[in-house]
Amino acid sequence: xxxxxxxxxxxTPMAFHHQLVEQxxxxxxxxxxxxxxxAQWFLWLGxxxxxxxxxxxxxxxxxxxxRIMNQMxxxxxIFSAFAGASLAAWEAISSSVPGRQTSxxxxxxxxxxxxxxxxIPFIFFVHTGSLQWGRVLSDDTGCVEGVSFSGLIPWIFMxxxxxxxxxxxxxxxxxxxxxxxxxxxxxxxxxxxxxWNMNHVLVAHLLPAxxxxxxxxxxxxxxxxxxxx
Length: 229
What we know:
Layout lengths: L12 H15 L9 H23 L5 H5 L2 H24 L8 H21 L8 H7 L1 H23 L6 H23 L5 H26 L6
Helix pairs in contact: 2-4, 2-7, 2-8, 4-5, 4-8, 5-9, 7-8, 7-9, 8-9
């Protein structure tokens, strides 16, 4: 008596799984080469410094810059702005690369540096009268535009890099990218502008950076999330 084995036409779960994986691999598009986060950071820093030099060549720097930078309050302000921009840039890049997120200590440090930056004009810089936001904005539109344009160029370049990464929180990434880029704009104009009055620095140099950050945060939330689609 012979025994005949029967073969079922239906696929086993394991075979179906392998077939599905093979189909997904065939359909996936090739990804571009991702630069290491530290390479992206140095690349962004180099481009930002070149943008600074370009604007300084076009606009010039303030008279007696070397003497001004020998004084502690201006030097501390420029150093804090550069440190804040650098820390923010690393946070933006790290937040867009899965598995490379920074620690809570790093984020707290970055926030403290930004708070110190905003506090320096209140503590050290001379101010005359009350802070009149509208009057300063209307009288100093050149500085406002300078911060905006000199910060927008580094942000566009950083945005291009971040859009090639894979941020899971694009709004967070966009916010930190804005802080980093527009603080570089603040430094650019602060080196050019001889006005160190508290009201002027806050309204014409720091406020545009804050507004620019808010705007590009929402732009970045769309731009940096297109990889999910």
